[in-house]
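Task: encode each sequence below as structure tokens.

Item 1
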Amino acid sequence: MSALIEFDSVCKYYQMGDTVVKAADHISMKIEKGEFVAIVGQSGSGKSTCMNIIGCLDVPTSGTYKLNGRDVGSMDKNELAEIRNELLGFIFQQYNLLPKLSLLENVELPLVYAGLSRSEQHQRAREALEQVGLGNKLDNKPSQLSGGQQQRVAIGRALITRPALILADEPTGNLDTQNTSEVIALLKEASHLYEQTIVMITHSQSIAQTADHILQVSDGVVNDFGRCRE
């Protein structure tokens, strides 16, 4: 495998009054293509800063971040938007589904600018919903689903463009134990079958243990980055 994500002494500092806050402090790491990695840490630890940099939503104050070999820190806003559309899929704790659209229409959204015909968009969205076990609810609205089902729709939407990297921000935070297990299984399937890199942000050590590797962050510093035991 080769590295999809490379941090070389990445720092992110914020000025708050007279105080400089080190949200990321000289982080160096590599995440290989096809890995399922958990970034774990408590609120304020710096894990969200890492996620924002990895997701090209922010850039380092200093140091170098390369995504698939490209230096993200040197990109302008248009280039950052382009690389997000090209390489990234996002899954959020709050699902972020549009309530007035059907499940099919919600999942199709990332394909709007993909240059596909309407029939191709419909077909790929149907396949994505079937993959997450909701192929019989294409015309349903999000309000007609449970929380676990809504998160599966969000996963289908993230998978539909087959992005190289999926960022999952507390994807099980609102779910019970059974739905948590189902969501983790879907993420693992994407990682193993399609060689997609999954980076999951979580505050839960037990959820982090379901990943292949754990990156533990505290006070903007990486404390531990290693392979989980089987």
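Item 2
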Amino acid sequence: MKLNRRSFVKWASLSPAIALPMISCASSENEAESKKMDGVKPLNLNIQSISREERLSRIAKAQQLMQEQKIDALFLEPGTSMKYFLDFDFFLSERMVAAVIPAKGDIAYICPGFEQDKVEELVKFANKVLTWEEHESPYALTAKLLRDIGTPNQKVAIEERCRFFLYDGIKSETARINFVNGDGVTAGCRVFKSPAEIALMQAANTATLEAYKILFDSLYEGMNQYDFRDIASEAHRKLGFSGSIGANFGEWSAFPHGSSKTQTLKPGDIVLADGGCTVEGYKSDISRTIVFGEHNDRQKEVWDVVKEAQTAAFELAKQPGTTCEQMDAAARAVIDQAGFGPDYKYFSHRLGHGIGMDGHEWTNLVRGNDTPLQAGMCFSNEPGIYIVGEFGVRLEDCFYMTENGPQYFTQPSPSIDKAFA
């Protein structure tokens, strides 16, 4: 039985064999945390939902891209792309619930007969809902739909996250159709964020940064990473959002995505935290690295190199025509020149990823991606140095591209002793 501080207190209260001073100590920590949260009020960020008109423009753009790419239709199942275009959200199961957006004509849904009423409640951009009974094939029904809408190019795009058995089932019923990856349509729309999307992402980043401030003010010796996560979730909740921030302490910060081993915070430990929240379907993603107590020279040396790498990449983004791979190279060059190379030895991942409705989406700041930065694109800028057996440092702030260059959603940490600008 593994006990953290909270579960220990709960269990100990049932057992007279547990020493009372230990219970009192844990209870006082709970009370101190509770008092810190008492003054936290929900943020008023004037959040505006994506309008119906904007979603209609997204559908129109998708249809335009399909026509340009000689694609007859786009097949979607529930997920972020379906939410993006159709404002439709549904759980996934072995039963097909899907939508087909044709290059020309009306959108249609496919669902089990017993789910028709529920699906029709949720449908906002179509009048056609086709149903299949439990003994019937949804794949045959989808094939008939594709024949009825017409497929002169004999090409249908499947959204990239669509589960294989759906693609395979439809393909078995429509041998004449060539199925292609739908990225050219979905990413062709979603990569470029509108002002309304940028505003929602700004709200998400603002909320998470406020949660970080509460969280770092709540650190205490002896806490573990699960206590840290619980406080982070509560801070987001008090601010009016749903979010999570995880952390790794000391030597475990050298694992870019952390260790599953229970860690206990002690003075002098690096704290590498990473997380975000969701606002109206749009994500934030922020990493901060601090020291609990006094830092040493080695920690400051590594932290400063990572900060310089983050700055170098952002400055390069200000130059017209900069590509995604050049951003990665700029940050990596700083780290290599400081003696933490070569290549992926200590900076073991790409510089950044696209972000929007998914925490990681198109396109990545990585070697081999010659896509130029363009207005509306959103990325994380997160260089890191990870020295196994010692510690790791990562600094992550997301930015978006404007016609005049990059803009941060959150201002980067100024120094190892100052997490917030």
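Check on item 2: The chain has twelve helices and 17 strands. Residues 1-28 have pLDDT under 50 and may be disordered.
End of task.
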